[in-house]
Specification:
The protein is mainly α. It contains six helices and no strands. Helix 1 runs antiparallel to helix 2, helix 2 runs antiparallel to helix 5 and helix 3 runs antiparallel to helix 4. The longest helix has 27 residues. It binds protoporphyrin IX containing FE. Keywords: Membrane, Transmembrane, Transmembrane helix.
Length: 160
Amino acid sequence: MLVTHIVSAGAWIGIDVMVAVLVLTGRFGSSDEVRGLAYEALATFVVWPMLVSGLLTLTTGLILGLGTRWGLVRYWWVGIKLVLNLVLCTLILVALRPGMDEIGAYGRDLVNGAPEPAGVSDLFFPPAVSLTTLALATVLAVAKPWGRIRRTAGTGSTRS
Ligand code: HEM
């Protein structure tokens, strides 16, 4: 389960890197054809693999938390990763996916040599925010900082 968790988190990070490459190519590509194809690839291939890897990371993380001494909300590093994972998966659905049809159409217009349309909203933020958040989650997973969320009152001992 830990291997699947690490592999799915790694795949998610890899997909984010691919998104960053496509966004940069769409913006700064050498020709309209190249730029348009990058936007079309972005609209066609990105959302579902990203969501699947995010949900797989979440599911395996939940199983690991429930099946080990770490729990889900017992340690700060697990609880924070849970929140980050939920926020990112929600953002994929509510912020990224709805704009994909527009980006695909924009890409097709560029490839077909149509006059430059109105343009797409700024796409640099999604990969930047996601990569930063996933890097933070990886640091939390490896360093496991800050200990337990609650301590038993009075004794100073820790809850299991
Ligand atoms: C946000 C994306 C996530 C990333 C990038 C991530 C990354 C990682 C990595 C790299 C490890 C291996 C650490 C090590 O062995 O030293 C790990 C372990 C672990 N993760 Fe995650 N994780 C994420 C989400 C979650 C979630 C949502 C949960 C649970 C709610 C979770 C629970 C755990 C647990 C309990 C372990 C330790 C398992 C063990 O050693 O027995 N993770 N994670």
